[in-house]
Every structure is written in C-alpha cells, then in structure tokens.
Amino acid sequence: MNYYELRIALHDFENWSDILVAYLAEIEFESFVEEAPNLKAYIPESAYDGAALQTLLSDPQVAQAIEGFDLSLLAQQNWNANWEAQFEPVYIGEQLRIVAPFHELEPFDGLELVILPKMSFGTGHHQTTHLICQTMFELDFKGKRVLDMGAGTGVLSLLAEQLGAQEIRAIEIEAWSAENILENMALNGATKIESIHGGAEAIGEQPYDLILANINKNVLLAQLSIYAASMSPNAVLLLSGFFITDAPDLINAAAQHGLLHQQTLDRENWAVLKFVKP
C-alpha cells in the first residue's frame, strides 16, 4: 500500500500542531510526526480525498496558521524505512516501555511491548495512546473480557493481555492494520487476542467487562449507544482520540446512554474519559 505524506510548516507550531492533527484525522489521515515547525501527516493512497484536504487548508483560520505545505506520494518500502528511522522508544513512566524490534536497549523493570512500526496508528507516541496506557494500569484486567475498538497496532490489546485479560477482541477497520496486529501478537507471544478486520458490526452480542476506544470524536459519538449496550454491569469504558474541549459533548452523550463519568485525564490538550455502566 502506498501512502501520501503531507508536510505542513506552521507559524505557531505549539498551538496549532494538535489542532491540525485533529482536523486531519477527521479526513482519514492516520499517522503523524511532529518535527517543529513542521507537522507530517500520512494517509493511505486509497483513502486520500483531495477536495476534502483543499477545503481544510483553504479555511481562513487554518490558512493563516500555515506557512506552507507539500504533498508527496511515498512507496510502501520508503514509508517503512522513513518510519523506522523516526521511531523512538516510548516510556509510560516506569510501568511500560514500547519498543520496536530493531531497538537495542538496556534492561527495563516494567512491562515491555514490541511494536513493529508499520503504517498503523498507535505506537504510544501520540498523547491519546499514552493516556489510555497510563489509565489502564489503574484498572483490573485479570480474567476480564476486553474490546479494543480502532485497535491500530494492537498496542492496547497487547497491554490488556499483559495486565491479565482473559479474552480480547481487537477490531480494526483497515485490513492491513488488522494484519499488523497479528504480527505484533507474534512478536509479543500474545495468545488471548482476536484480531478482526471490521467496524462496529464486529462487536458481537457477548458483553464486555472493559471497552477501549481510541478513535475520534465523531466516530465515538456515533458508536456510544453500541458500546453501552455491549457493556456488562459495572463494566468500564475508556474513550480517547479527542481534545479536552470536546470532553463535555462526549460526557453528555454517554449520560444519555446510562453511563456514569468517573474520570478525566488530559495530556497536551488531548483527553481520556473513564465511564462505568451501573
């Protein structure tokens, strides 16, 4: 699969980088690299919508923040080499380290996940993945049935297994990403995860004890009723993939489906919300 790389130079990188990541994610860009003052965003060639991108970049507020941009098509092998060159280990405090197979590092006392950094979103570098991983250490996964929606690389599913989950269903809309989950399962010796190519229709009827959904605000709002219906009594739902300013909309929507908001965490303007089903 080929990818487009969009490079955007920003006048005010600190304030605008995260905003543009959110906007670009809404038009199917799925991986991002921040190299101030430039933001690099990646999208599969098959998902690229030139008209949608032009509409975004032509917005007066966005255009004012941009110094310049460049769009180029990357062959898959070039994408992988580029991603490997920029992939650095991720540390979630002293509890978790996320590394690539090619890293040579000192021993680590916490848990460690090995992620093959292909095109999938979710290596731990993004604030939302970092936040959910951090929050997962506060929950009891032992013997639990877990749903990971928009699983990306499978990093959350892999962590759930290491934390003791008995059964994990990892659902990913992109076929190549679902395949990447299988590769990462093999690298980590994971046996409790089922990687499924599909969307909300693949959730099934059996209830879950924990649901992890790191997608984006619009998808989360559209699927909240399905999540709520798929939760066991006292089940926990973690939502992320949106800005802290969007949290009230999701909290209000979740309340309409009988979910109780228990916790909000934020990291560099991104948020994770924790809900419980009574």
Account of the 3D structure:
The protein has helices at residues 13-26, 50-58, 60-65, 76-86, 127-136, 155-162, 175-188, 217-229, 247-256, and strands spanning 3-10, 31-35, 38-44, 66-74, 90-92, 96-99, 111-114, 145-149, 167-172, 193-197, 208-214, 231-243, 260-267, 270-276. The protein has 278 residues and is an alpha/beta fold. It folds into two domains: 3-83, Alpha-Beta Plaits, CATH 3.30.70; 87-276, Vaccinia Virus protein VP39 (Rossmann fold).
Structure in a nutshell:
The chain has 9 helices and 14 strands. With 278 residues, the protein is α/β, with parallel strands linked by helices.
Topology:
Layout: E1 3-10, H1 13-26, E2 31-35, E3 38-44, H2 50-58, H3 60-65, E4 66-74, H4 76-86, E5 90-92, E6 96-99, E7 111-114, H5 127-136, E8 145-149, H6 155-162, E9 167-172, H7 175-188, E10 193-197, E11 208-214, H8 217-229, E12 231-243, H9 247-256, E13 260-267, E14 270-276
Parallel strand pairs: 6-7, 8-9, 8-11, 9-10, 11-12
Antiparallel strand pairs: 1-3, 1-4, 2-3, 5-6, 12-14, 13-14
